[in-house]
Amino acid sequence: MSFEPRRVKLHELYREIEALGGGDTDPEGEAYNRAILDALSILRASGFGEGFYVDQREYENRGRLAREFAPVIGAALA
Questions:
Q1: What is the pTM for the complete model shown?
Q2: Spatial separation of the C-alpha atoms in residues 62 and 24, rounded to whole Å
Q3: Which of 32, 57, 75, 76 is the most buried (most CB within 10 A)?
Q4: Torsion angle defined by CA atoms of residues 59, 60, 64 and 70, in that order, rounded to the nearest 10 degrees
Q5: C-alpha angle with apex 11: 19 to 69, nearest 5 degrees?
Q6: Which string of b and e fits 11-43 if b means at least 16 CB within 10 Å?
Q7: Cα angle vertex 39, ends 16, 55, to 5°?
Q8: Among candidates 6, 21, 17, which has minimal Cα distance to 49?
């Protein structure tokens, strides 16, 4: 199995990890599902999960860009 690297938002990563879990009842499958739940709990503890659609860094970048370009755009409109 080969994977291509790609950028994903954390809410997308959360959903993809969540989808990896399954209904395996053998000991190996249960350990795998516990690892999936652990990864999801780490994301939730960091403030991300289902329903969180803007990651913090993206939110901060939007705010920084808005502050940076607001004077330029305002001057161009005047």
A1: 0.48
A2: 42
A3: 32
A4: 30
A5: 160
A6: beebeebeeebeeeeeeeeeeebeebeebbeeb
A7: 65
A8: 17
